[in-house]
Amino acid sequence: DVKVTQSSRYLVKRTGEKVFLECVQDMDHENMFWYRQDPGLGLRLIYFSYDVKMKEKGDIPEGYSVSREKKERFSLILESASTNQTSMYLCASSLGFTISYEQYFGPGTRLTVT
Amino acid sequence: GQQVMQIPQYQHVQEGEDFTTYCNSSTTLSNIQWYKQRPGGHPVFLIQLVKSGEVKKQKRLTFQFGEAKKNSSLHITATQTTDVGTYFCAVASGGSYIPTFGRGTSLIVHP
């Protein structure tokens, strides 16, 4: 079974703090994704990575950056957290980055920025 | 990203009633995926449809891909409380190869 884990289930940070969200997958997948999920808005893609050190912007990359130094690990960074970044963050991995491949999601991190 | 409309946003049903959610696009889709997210859980892949007019079944769930590959539906027969959750479609079309998720349909089943 593919396992995708995220470093925290719940996180509370203050405005202006630098926040790191970590995601690890154990299936040797090339591709990893970061989404945010907000009520009524579904899942919106922030960034994805198709290889180590490779990244592509998704639909809402503003205010975020990512890091992929190892194949199994994909980090989402909020350089200076703001209250409008309060959300559920979901990481996913897949064999390929196109719609032809099933995505496996982690349990999510619910981030609150106060 | 690719625009996809998913309707309805919410659906309340009595246990035993049927349920359908629709995913509609203005452009031709290459394929479509469906995911289910239980309350408090994460999205889990259900199925992928690729061919025009394709119909696939998983027990009480029936998935259809339109003939023009611009829409899809997920139909649940005789809902059970275990069907509660949010159902998402994910699509890509034309030159966009990255999946875009619909906003989801939340199914509430009343016992």
Contiguous low-pLDDT stretches of chain A (5 residues minimum) are none
Portion in strands of chain A = over 45%
Number of strands of chain A: 11
Structural class of chain A: mainly beta
Through-space gap between termini of chain A: 37 Å
- The structure class of chain B reads mainly beta
Q: Termini distance of chain B?
A: 38 Å
Mean pLDDT of chain B: 94
Written as H for each helix and E for each strand, in order along the chain, the element string of chain B is EEEEEEEEEEE
Shape of chain A: globular
Sheet with the most strands of chain A? 7 strands, mixed
- If interface size is counted as residues with C-beta under 8 Å from the partner's C-beta, which chains form the largest one? A-B, 24 and 26 residues
For the largest beta-sheet of chain B, the strand count, sense and barrel status come to: 6 strands, mixed
Low-confidence parts of chain B: none
Helix content of chain A: under 10%
The helix fraction of chain B, in percent, is under 10%
- State which percent range the strand residues of chain B make up: over 45%
- Counted by DSSP, the helix tally of chain A is 0
